[in-house]
Every structure is written in C-alpha cells, then in structure tokens.
Amino acid sequence: MYSPTLPEQPADSRPLAPVRQPRAWALTGTVGGLVGLVGIFATATLTAPAEQFRGDNAQYVAALAGTGYVWAHQVVTVVAIVCLAIFAAGLRRYLGAQEPAGSLVPMLAATGVGLVLVGLLIGGGISTELFFSLGSAEEYDPDVIAPQLTIFATMAWLWGGIGLTAGAVAVGGLRHGSVSRWFAVFSAVIALLVAATQLAPVQYIALVPGGIWVVVAGLALAFGQHPQTGRS
C-alpha cells in the first residue's frame, strides 16, 4: 500500500521571538534635547562680559567680538537640528504604527518638532552675517549688528512647538494607548507648561520644558515598555 511522504518538520518548531523595532531615532532625540537645552544656555553665558554695555551698542558689540559666542551657538543649533529632524521622522513612524488609521496624532507630533527646527535654523542661520560683522566690528554699524544679536539670542530658544508635540502624544496615549500611560500624563503636563510660556511674553523659556520633554521622550521610547504588549 502506498504511503504518502510527509514533508519533514523543522527540528526546532518553536515560534520566533518578536523582533524589537530599532529605536536609535529615539536616543538621537535625547541627544538633540540635551544639546539644545544645555548648549543654548551654555553659549548664552558667553555674552556675560558684554551685558554691562547693553545701553551702548558700540561697546556691546565690541565686547562680544572675539568671544566665540556666534560660532559656538551655530554649532549647537546645527547638531540639535540634525538630531531633532531624525527624532521627528522616527516619532511620526512610531505613532503611525500605534495610532488608528487616519489619526492626526503622528502628523501633529512631527509638526511640533518641525516648528522647533525652523526656529533653530533661522536662529543659527544669522550666524553667517554676525560672524563676519563681529570679526570686523569697526567696519560695520553697531546699531545694525545689535538688533541682529537680539534676534540671534531669541529664535533658537523658541521651543513652543514641543507643546504641540507633547499634547498630541498625550492625546494618543490617553485615548488610544499609543504610548504608556505615565508618559502620556507626563506629556500632558509638559504641554500645559509650554502653553503657559506662550500665553505670556516669555516664549523663549519654552526651551526648558520643551527640552526636558524631548530628553525624557527619547529615553522612554527607546527603553520603555511597549504600550500594547508590555514588552520591554
């Protein structure tokens, strides 16, 4: 009697372990948050020798010349831009995989970081003009350079867009479980703090809660538990 030949079973038929999605983008966000938060405050201290001349543009500009302030600020903004751009793309992809189809959360979260990138790009971009004008301060009108320095010292601090990002993440976490509950609550608190800075003439202070959120978000999304399965 003919016996059909059955296909051989693999020796090890155990189910494959789930593959953890790469989260290097999240850690890149943490680096960007630290560079932005610490670096922008650090470069601001380089203006200390000139602060006593705030009422005299000529002396103020002369005191800043040769301090390295502009170059240091430019390096900080460039590094932060690269890191936050990667983080924004990764965050959008991550939330897109967790949120229901058609959800606005991924796009809003990425847009908030994008707004910060615009501020950093403009704030750091003025360094091209300031670097050469401060290097030859005697050839330039100090009354023209001083206002540029004011803009330079403000734009990169405007991290209000992170309030939109944190708010979107909070909604996604609390309504759809796209992030862990503790992180959703933390994001909601940060969103309120950032909103408070935008409702008063201290918008640049948004760098503090915004930078802290990016640092925590990167660590939480890189090492935290999966919102659906609880796997670490």
From TrEMBL:
The chain crosses the membrane at residues 24-48, 68-91, 103-126, 146-170, 182-200, 206-224. Keywords: Membrane, Transmembrane, Transmembrane helix. The keyword Membrane applies. The keyword Transmembrane helix applies. It comes from the Bacteria. This is DUF4386 domain-containing protein. It comes from Micromonospora craterilacus.
